[in-house]
Amino acid sequence: MNNRKCSHNSCNYEIYDSNKEQKCIFHCSKDDWYSIQNGKKFWNEEKVKEFWRRIREEKVTKKDYSFLCFVFPKFEKYPNAKQLNLDSKEWELVQGIKNIESINTLILDDKIDGINFWRRNSQLVFEKDVYFDGSKFLDGANFDKIRFEKKLNFIGCEFYGDVFLRYISFNEDAIFTAVTFNDRVFIYKSELINSTFTFLDTKFNSRIVIKNLTNKNSKLNFDYTHFLENSIVFLSEIEIDYLHIQNLYNFSENFRITNLKVNNDLKIIDTNLNNIEFTNNDFSSIPIITFKGASFDNVKFNNIKWGSINLKRFGSNRDIFRQIKHQYDQQSNIIDANKFYSAEMNAYKKEIKNEKWRTHWQDKIIFCLSRISSNFSKNFFLPVFCLFISSSLFYLISFYKLDYSKIESFNVFSNHIFSTDWKLIFNEILLYANPFNTKLKGSALLWILHKSFSTYFIYQFVVALRRQTKR
């Protein structure tokens, strides 16, 4: 019997198989456990079987869930139906389990004993914190159909095969910190209960699918997460109370978020959201939406329920509204583009409100005129109305030439108001308002001012009409 201890720090397990590294079965590199043919690993089945037997015997049965710096070989798989001697109904249960409780059946207890480290005597629940800090997974990793009662920690881990987390219940936080996924990741039909699911300083090099994720008062965090050039990202059928995205770096050209519903809080901060497609997402019930320092370049928004778009609800600056408006303009979605354009102008109003008139008087005048004349090109009726009112005023001032030094001139004007043929006056005002009428009428100065205002209102009308009708 070999009594020498593993050379790994603080490890008291015996050295396995006299390996050169002087390490135990859990910490040895396992470089000689497999061969590679045509890019595929072929494992020594006896050594793999012994590894998982020791995992169950030394760790799981003792409820010791600390797998620090372990090097995992391939995960054992389900035997096929013939090997288990299952009938069709039994096999359907094994393959299509829909909830965790249904796994605790005599079928699995009796016929699938010791498949991976959580299947010893129906061991489907981790009652304590689970730590995989510094671990390496040299092949596919399967964490299906488990309930984590306490925290799940992956810190500084590397995955070199497909990773599956399906039909899982997370009752406390699940944290992936400084983790590198070199192959595909599938998180599917899992539940978060009063927990936070966090990717921190994590890199994805291939496909990641997060689908059918439900929650009860839980958060989904992406913080300093990198989706690298060859990655394909698909997030779908997710309902979450809190979604926080901060310092996310997306280099993927295939990134889709569909059927996402966020209930309470959405924060996107200092994040590059380039080349992401949002489809059928519902943000309408969120009290506060925070976009700060985010980049929306080549982003597509399809059928997004934003709810009320205003400064009070969106903790964003004017540039965020401008970027989203621009993306909607690129998609010829004029209705939603106008909503964010309105929010952009309101944010601009807030910016210049506290500025001094002496240094920003031109901006303030232009802003006020644009708002009054067309509501920032959102209302093409307003310029027409303003044109008629201004023409009426200029015409009446030119026609009556009031002498303000003599009070009787007002009486004359008042008497004339009630005795005037308004039909005739109305026709004359329309002729006066005609922008193509170049005949000087009345004061030259008033005529020039009137033509200047008329040109401005006509321009506002054309811009508003184009904004409302362009395709």
Offer a concise description of the structure.
By secondary structure, this protein is an alpha/beta fold. It has eleven helices and 26 strands.
What does it look like?
The protein is α/β, with parallel strands linked by helices and 471 residues long. The protein folds into two domains: 34-76 and 114-307; 364-469, no CATH class. Helix content is 33%, strand content 24%. The chain is built from eleven helices and 26 strands. The strands form three sheets. It has a 17-stranded parallel beta sheet that branches. Strands 3-6-10-14-17-20-22 form a seven-stranded parallel beta sheet, with no helix packed on it. Strands 1-2 form a two-stranded antiparallel ribbon. Strand 1 (34-37) and strand 2 (40-43) form a beta hairpin. Helix 5 (318-330) packs antiparallel against helix 6, helix 8 crosses helix 10 (422-433) and helix 8 (381-400) packs antiparallel against helix 11. The radius of gyration is 35 Å and the shape is rod-shaped. It starts with 33 loop residues before the first strand and ends with a helix.
